[in-house]
Design goal:
globular; Four Helix Bundle (Hemerythrin (Met), subunit A); mainly alpha
Length: 134
């Protein structure tokens, strides 16, 4: 069984790496670490509640699949994110930009778009951490 606290630490390290990469204009590296941070903090929240998110293959990296993981018969994260309009906006923004199958492709990212994407990822990670994990 995965310890949700260890996964939380890894998520926050990924977020810190994403921020450092963004400062150096390494947009693909920043985006990849943003995604890993969000993926891990979401899984951490699910594990904390006793659920079992997907962990392998493409499903293990798919934020929609992870958010739709049922805990006690409910889509735990999906419902939590939907209940907060700002987080829903961030989640929609991330979901419309990042596609799991792109994780091995070099993306042409506009610096202004990257700032917005980082803010959306960071907002989600910090909110999930503060409200569902910590």
């Amino acid at each position: 069984m995965v310890d949700f606290r260890d996964l939380r630490e890894l998520a926050l390290e990924n977020l810190q790496t994403a921020e450092l990469a963004l400062e150096k204009k390494l947009y693909n590296t920043s985006l990849e670490n943003c995604h890993y941070a969000l993926e891990k903090i979401m899984k951490s929240a699910i594990y904390k509640e006793g659920g079992n998110p997907p962990t392998s293959g493409q499903r293990g990296h798919d934020l929609v699949e992870i958010a739709n993981t049922k805990v006690n018969g409910r889509k735990y994260l999906h419902n939590k994110i939907k209940s907060n309009s700002i987080m829903l906006k961030y989640y929609t923004q991330v979901g419309s930009f990042w596609k799991t199958h792109q994780r091995y492709e070099k993306l042409d990212i506009d610096p202004f778009d990257m700032d917005e994407m980082f803010d959306a990822y960071e907002g989600l990670v910090r909110w999930i951490d503060k409200n569902l994990v910590d």
